[in-house]
Write a structure and sequence with these properties.
This protein is α+β, with helices and mostly antiparallel strands. The chain has one domain. The strands form five sheets. Strands 11-12-13-14 form a four-stranded antiparallel β-sheet. It has a three-stranded antiparallel β-sheet with strand order 1-4-3. Strands 8-9-10 form a three-stranded antiparallel β-sheet. Strand 3 and strand 4 form a beta hairpin.
C-alpha cells in the first residue's frame, strides 16, 4: 500500500471520527466542505478556552501598494476581522477587588535566528544579517559585512523568506547602476522599488506580526504552548491553495501567505517557523521527497524544545471546515517514527537551512526526533487547553465519548 493511499485512508478515518466526536457537541457543525481561500470561509474564534487563546484573529492592515489580482471571487485576506477580545481573568471572591495585571505589548523582534543556523553558520553570518535587518528598519543603503560570500548569503531571497520575509523580492544584491555591491567590508542594499514603498511595506508587516503575537502568544507561555497556540492559529485561519492562486512574485512567499492566508506546504512551514522564531522558539522549515514517487515532495517545520527535536506539520493540520471547533493533533509534535509512517522517513529528511546548506552539512546538530512525551493517541482532536494549569483536553472517538485530559510539563 503506498504512503499516499495510507495517508488518504487515515485522513478519511480522521474526518469520520471528527464527525462522530462533534456529533455530541451542541452548536458545532460537522459538515465538511472543500477548502477555499481563507476569506471565503466563516472565521471562528479559536477553540481553546485557556487564557490568551480565546482572542479573535488580530486586525491586519493590507498594503496599499500590492493589490491582489484575483477578480473571480472575494479577495482572500481582505475582509474585516474583529478586534481582539481579552478574556476576563478568573478570580476568587478575595481577588475581585484587585486590578488585573498589565501586559506589556508585544514588540517585533528584528533579529530572528535559530540554534540550527548556529550549528551550520559561523557567527559572522548572523552578525551581518542582523546588521542588514537593522539597516532595513531605518531605510539604509548599506550594512557592515565581513566577506562577499556572507554578503551573498544576506541578500539571497531564501534567507529573506526564512528570516525577514518582508525583504523577500523587495531588495537585491545585484547592482542596477554599475556600482560595486560589496567592497571594503560593506554591502550595498538595492531596493527594487522605491525606498518609500519598502518602508511602508515593512511598517505594515511589523504591525501585522505584532498583532498576531499579541493575540496568540502570552509572556508566560512555555515553548510547547507557543507551538500549540500558533499551530491552532494556522488551523483556524489558513487554507490550502488548491487552485494555485497565490502570487508570490510581488510580496514573496511569507508576506503573500500572511496577507491572503492561503498557500502550500512550503509557504506554511516557513511562515510557521518564522512566527515561532519571533516568539523565541528554535524552528526551521524542512522537507522530504518521500520514500516513493507517489509520496511526493512535502515540507513541514522542525522545532527544538529543551534540546529535543520534534516535527510539526501546519499544512496537514489545517481544518477543511473552519466552523469545526476542534483541531487534529496527529501532525503536532511528531517523532521520526510518526513522520515515517506517512512516507517521510528520517533518513530522507532534507533540511534546506539556507542558501547552499542542508542538514547533512551541520556538524553541531542532529535533526532527529525521538521524544514522544507530547504525543497523544491517533485521531485525537484538541478541544481546549489551559496554559496556566498545563492541561490540554482532547476528544477521541476511538477511545470513547467525552473529553480526555492530557497534562504536560
Amino acid at each position: 500500500m503506498t504512503s499516499n493511499l495510507k495517508k488518504s485512508i487515515i485522513q478519511a478515518i480522521a474526518l469520520l471520527l471528527a464527525a462522530l466526536i462533534l456529533a455530541g457537541c451542541s452548536g458545532v457543525s460537522t459538515e465538511v466542505t472543500d477548502t477555499a481561500p481563507a476569506e471565503s470561509q466563516t472565521e471562528p474564534l479559536p477553540s481553546s478556552a485557556g487564557p490568551g487563546t480565546s482572542a479573535a484573529e488580530p486586525e491586519r492592515t493590507d498594503e496599499v501598494s500590492s493589490e491582489p489580482e484575483h477578480t473571480d471571487e472575494p479577495e482572500p485576506g481582505t475582509s474585516d476581522v474583529p478586534e481582539q477580545t481579552e478574556p476576563l481573568p478568573v478570580t476568587t471572591e478575595e481577588e475581585t477587588t484587585a486590578p488585573p495585571p498589565e501586559e506589556t505589548p508585544w514588540v517585533f523582534n528584528n533579529h530572528v535566528w535559530s540554534c540550527f543556523l548556529d550549528a551550520c553558520y559561523p557567527a559572522e553570518y548572523r552578525d551581518a544579517f542582523f546588521a542588514l535587518c537593522d539597516a532595513l528598519r531605518e531605510g539604509g543603503d548599506s550594512f557592515p559585512c565581513a566577506s562577499r560570500e556572507i554578503y551573498d548569503f544576506c541578500m539571497d531571497e531564501v534567507t529573506h523568506n526564512q528570516l525577514y520575509p518582508v525583504a523577500c523580492t523587495q531588495i537585491t544584491g545585484k547592482s542596477p547602476d554599475g556600482s560595486v555591491p560589496f567592497e571594503n567590508g560593506a554591502g550595498r542594499i538595492y531596493y527594487k522599488k522605491s525606498k518609500t514603498d519598502f518602508l511602508e511595506r515593512q511598517r505594515v508587516f511589523i504591525q501585522n506580526i505584532e498583532a498576531i503575537m499579541e493575540a496568540w502568544i502570552r509572556p508566560d507561555y512555555s515553548e510547547f504552548e507557543k507551538c500549540l497556540s500558533l499551530y491552532e492559529y494556522f488551523a483556524c485561519y489558513y487554507s490550502y491553495d488548491y487552485d494555485g492562486k497565490l502570487d508570490r512574485s510581488k510580496d514573496g512567499s511569507g508576506c503573500a501567505t500572511l496577507k491572503y492566508r492561503i498557500g502550500v506546504c512550503a509557504d506554511f512551514s516557513a511562515l510557521y517557523a518564522y512566527l515561532l522564531m519571533q516568539s523565541g522558539v528554535d524552528a526551521i522549515a524542512v522537507s522530504n521527497w518521500g520514500e516513493t514517487d507517489w509520496t511526493g515532495y512535502h515540507s513541514w517545520t522542525f522545532v527544538d524544545i529543551g534540546g529535543k527535536g520534534y516535527h510539526i506539520d501546519p499544512t496537514w493540520g489545517l481544518k477543511e471546515d473552519k466552523s469545526v471547533e476542534v483541531f487534529i493533533l496527529d501532525y503536532f509534535m511528531m517523532t521520526d517514527a510518526d513522520r515515517a509512517a506517512y512516507g517521510y522517513p528520517y533518513e530522507l529528511l532534507e533540511a534546506f537551512l539556507l542558501p547552499g546548506r542542508y542538514a547533512k552539512d551541520c556538524v553541531g546538530y542532529v535533526f532527529s526526533a525521538t521524544d514522544d512525551s507530547f504525543r497523544l493517541p491517533d485521531f485525537s482532536y484538541c478541544s481546549r487547553y489551559f496554559p496556566d494549569r498545563n492541561v490540554l483536553f482532547y476528544r477521541n472517538a476511538t477511545i470513547g465519548p467525552g473529553e480526555f485530559e492530557f497534562i504536560y510539563e
